[in-house]
């Protein structure tokens, strides 16, 4: 059995990584992305554990090393900007909350696109609207009106995956909401802030604002808040901005500057903090990869590593099985599931720990941040990061 053509939905992290490995194993790859170009935006994501080995095998570590953020740690600040507690990166030898290889998500997406654009066909501004599986392939209908046949279709299109909705059912069945929303966007640089620290400010009412300086012109802003029963359409950007303005009205520190910048931000991103849990990641000739199949949420710090590792395994198992997708999908799932299970277990505290609701709880969180930097508690923090190594990658021919 030989599978030759693969359509991947989603060109962020997992999709282009899969395109790389499939091309290397001899497949003809098409990637369809609903955005008009590689999406910019996001904060720093971590490349941890075996995911670093995957990037090294792809030959992209020099670009990642060149573009990674140089962060000395993160600190909580009060409304006047004074530090109340901090977590230096050096404490954990680059494997703690702040990883040695942290890179802005948009920069990593660009590196992966650059590494694959000559070998895979990228189609931006389009998406899959229907899938119909036959004996020898999947008939795919696109929003643009095109219809084409592929041997396999892989959904690497994130927590709100379109492929998952078409092949497995509505997202409510698979997304476990953790009770909070988060937004990321670019804002003007704040020259008086330390350029090497990610600063966060806790606000009563389960809210948090963060700024990560980027260069002399820009910084990355983050606003997170407890959902408390509020819902918002994942595609309605105007409603998301209005909700942020309402929730953060009257907050201090740099929040007014952040709300000002949000209006015109070229890379505004807003989403629910949630996880994806599924009994299986494939059906027939369709399979899921990355956040589409097993999102762990930004609280895990492991989502990008999981997408990179999953791409390596999925392509490797397809090659190993000679294109027999039934065998390959089963092996991908067998190898990946224990790793995903570990990565989806969140560190103590979860959303409530990140977003305390009262001044008292914010002071307690500062205290626990200070305690966490001391032995033996520091070992607890290192445990979450160590999960990134909890898999042995097979070597594929
Ligand atoms: C703009 C953006 C910013 C992010 N910022 C952060 C961050 O700061 N911190 C963090 O921890 N995680 C962030 N994430 C999530 C993080 O990238 C993932 O958790 C992880 O890297 C796994 O990536 P993924 O490729 O599986 O999914 P994602 O990175 O979510 O990528 C999914 C891709 O599929 C595309 N897509 C969605 N629906 C369709 C469709 N129907 N058809 C075709 N394409 C579709 C999306 O536009 C996107 O490019 C961000 C994701 C995005 C898209």
UniProtKB/TrEMBL annotation:
Report the transmembrane regions from the record. Answer: none
Q: What is this protein called?
A: FAD-dependent oxidoreductase
Q: PANTHER family attached here?
A: MONOOXYGENASE, OXIDOREDUCTASE-RELATED
Q: Where is the FAD-binding domain?
A: 5-320
Native organism taxonomy: Bacteria, Bacillati, Actinomycetota, Actinomycetes, Micromonosporales
One protein family per Pfam: FAD_binding_3
One MF annotation (Gene Ontology) recorded for this entry:
FAD binding
